[in-house]
Amino acid sequence: MTRFEELLMFDLNSSFAFPHFHGTLMAIANDIGYSDIFVEQLKNYLSPDDMVVGISGSGNSANVIKALKFAKKERCCDGSILRL
Fold first, then answer.
1. Is the model's pLDDT at 38 over the cut of 60?
2. Which of 23, 24, 27, 64 is most buried, taking the most CB atoms under 10 A from its CB?
């Protein structure tokens, strides 16, 4: 049995839950590139041993795949939900 000291969840694609993220998404997409929108946000929030879950309807979303690879490189647990 695992006991969680703290559970904090961020939806990096939602402007509903966190209205300031919408501006962040657009700024990253315009200045850096759409393929990095999730990686750039993870750089600010991610810590080793965090869990990152990527969701992609096709399974081919480059920005989601890139984020999961980044999470793995940062020694995080990663998972995915594909082909909805």
1. yes
2. 64
Pairwise CA distance, residues 63 & 47, whole Å: 19
Q: Among candidates 39, 44, 31, which has minimal Cα distance to 72? A: 39
Q: Where are the domains of the chain?
A: 20-39+53-82
Torsion sign over Cα 21, 25, 16, 8: negative
Other beta carbons within 10 Å of 29: 15
Q: Beta strand pairing status for 51-56 and 77-82?
A: parallel
Q: What is the dihedral of CA 27, 29, 33, 36, to 10 degrees?
A: 90
**Integer angstrom CA distances of residue 18 from 45, 54, 63:** 14, 18, 20
Are 64 and 36 in contact, with CB atoms under 8 Å apart? no
Bridge partner residues of 77 (DSSP): 51
- The reported pTM is 0.72
